[in-house]
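Forwarding these from the shared drive since the link keeps breaking.
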Amino acid sequence: MSRPSQKPRRTSASASRRSESIWLTGFHPVREALRARRRRLDGMLIRAGRTRPDQAELIDLARAAGVAVEIVDGANLELRVESDGNDQGVALRVGPLPELSLSELLIYAKGAPGVGSRLVALDGVEDPQNVGALARVAESAGAHGLILTERRAPPLTAAVSRASAGAIEWLRVARVPNLGRALATLQENAYWIVAAAPGSNSTLFEMDDRILTGNPRWCWARRGRGSVEASSSWPIIGSKSRCGVKLPH
């Protein structure tokens, strides 16, 4: 008697994402991924013939993390990585960055070193380059985490890591189905909602236990002015004085 056929098991979307791997390219994303060790590290490719000091640093970091290093010629690297020529002679095969729930992010932020707990919430920022740039500013300014929505926010791809110069490797990220409810939860946990406003007299460095919302127009329009309790500018040190992020109207 033949046994009834069994239907193949379906792989869940979350399990599929956990098994995915991508190539990070460029010195800063690769170095920060090797330093942070927050994701799976599968192997590193180095272009032959490069003798820059930063190459030795990457090799040392990879070996310390137990990552195999392979020296390849430029054509081999570009073919395997599908590089656009801006790989800077290095590529790291990695798994996805872990993403937290909002409750997990709150636990982490409250126990993180430093004074106060600072989070950044983005709404309507869909371009990976913009998310990466904002992650870089947030991490440099001392934020402990980034809150993205499940819809209208990009996955944490290699493009995000590269645009953040590797900062996203350190910044904890939580995705929420509804930003309005997330902000209400933060208020219930003693956070203030602070609108990011370039003309404000105070900066993120002066805000303790606060959250910056990346699109104050959304907060005012969707949740009312009462939900924004203060405003703050983002402190940016260096040659660039602003981050240009286009938001939907």
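-- next protein --
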Amino acid sequence: MKTRRRLSTLAFGIVFMWLALALSSTNLAVAAPNMEEGKPDVVNIKVDNEGLPPGSFGLVLALNSGTDTTSQTNFDTEVANLINSTVGGGTTLKLDDYCIVHLVLWSGKKIDRDGWFLYKATTAGATLGWSRRTEQEGRRIYGHKRVAVLLVHMQIAAGTFVDINYKVAINQKTPQPFKNLMTLIGALSPKGGGVGKPLTIHMWGGKLIEVERLPSDMVVSGSVAVANEQTKEFTRTYDNEGRYRWDVSIGLPVKTFKELEFKSEGGRVTTAAKTRQNAYGFLNIFPVPVDTKGDAVLTIPHGIVGVPLASKPLHHPFAEIGTGVFKAPIKFNVFAGVIFHRERVPRTLAEGSIATPGQLDADLRTRWVRKFAWGINIPISQIKDAIK
């Protein structure tokens, strides 16, 4: 029995020592692989392909992305056909690839309006089937290394002299869980001078980009220089970061607990109950990869280990289960589990016994007391938003 207890104590000690080191030092984040943020990779794309491929693109040409399910589906079908017959021609694109689409509608020699869209190849067959992505306002790519960009300018007045250029800057960044861990611790210049070739009615350009460094931000920026007109610029940033099996958060137990302390005062043993209610640093371990930037990240049932954000954190480790609900108007995350309290109690002496401080210290032994606790689990992002 004693051997089993010692092994359990050793196992918990190793886990919580790792967590305590993670919470108290940024070295863990710095040492993580592929996390250096440096100069961006830049890919240039020129819009110089004349005309659109054969097909029906009435909704696309009107930039009518739909206000109901039917019209949205019809619009997405036209965009899918456009992707497959332009940048996705042949076998360029594959299942699960993403495609950033920028549609620009002109009125004569001036730009009227534009729209940004993000699609993912979700079905395979004779041609790929593409579905529109709406996460984070259509800016979220889940850690994929193959991202196509399709740029279409429509209804340009014939005879317009224009130069249309885009660039995609890929900026590597720190993974979100490491950002949360560290929080817990402590445009493109126009080319040419408005001299280009006369355009037909529609123009497009596109390219498949191999993203080597993840996670990263993909900044798509474009510049349209028209003779005798003010230059028009576009910019949109896409968050290309995958899902993770872990994240950190702050836990607030609902109930306080009393820690018993033994002292020698006036030659006699005395006791004092010290009330504690500590905030905890939590390591959330998920059974499947989750989007750590999503609002519902802590709602999936998952395991949690933690230590108090106070002195001697390894004296009060925590192991529990967490879950939550994120459906308006109900939004909360909770945890429940066991706190392991390390106490120093006398072997033979009792309250009122005669003993010097040295005698009491020699008589003290360590024991672990288990107590049930529950409370609120708060994501780091929520705390950051609250203090802005």
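Confidence is low (pLDDT under 50) at residues 6-36, 187-195. The first strand starts at residue 41 and ends at 46.

- D.
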